[in-house]
Design goal:
Layout: H1 3-58, H2 63-68, H3 89-96
Length: 97
């Protein structure tokens, strides 16, 4: 029984197990990054889709016709100018009393 040979064999097994463990977490991190990149790409594509839909609406296309043509309508609309604040008639009358 050669103790040094046993120690080297044990160390090699530990190194191999450690390498496999490190590779698994590296693969997980890489996969998580690809998912994050894909999600960001979807957000960008949805924003671009909403803007294109807004342009189509301004050009005279309505939702019904767009759907009839087989084009999905964006779930979120593109942002625009904020609406002006409305005067509330009940608020005005309550302050007069």
């Amino acid at each position: 029984m050669d103790i040094e040979q046993i120690a080297r064999a044990a160390a090699a097994e530990l190194d191999q197990a450690r390498d496999a463990k490190v590779k698994s977490i590296t693969d997980l991190a890489s996969s998580a990054q690809r998912v994050a990149d894909a999600r960001a790409a979807v957000v960008d594509a949805e924003r671009e889709h909403a803007k294109a839909y807004q342009v189509a609406e301004r050009a005279g296309w309505d939702e019904k016709t767009v759907r009839k043509l087989g084009i999905d309508v964006p779930q979120r609309r593109a942002g625009g100018r904020p609406r002006a604040a409305r005067k509330d008639a009940t608020a005005d009358s309550s302050t007069d009393a």
